[in-house]
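BUG: 3D viewer hangs when loading the predicted structure for this chain

Environment: internal workstation, default settings.
Expected: structure renders.
Actual: progress bar stalls at 90%.

Input used:
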Amino acid sequence: MNYFPHLIALVVGGIVLCIIKRKYKKIRNRELIIIVILFVILVALFTAAGMDLIKRFINFIQIQ
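Structure tokens produced before the viewer hung:
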């Protein structure tokens, strides 16, 4: 699988968060860590593997 575009998105997101941290001094590190975790989950969900996992979970919970 080609993960290069996803890695670029994560790196750019990290750079943006560093810029935001420098501009707004009152942002705590804990808040930035939560944002990074949510961003990683968001990027992972929109990969082919993430979509397959969601489809399998939906098929698993459906009542037949």
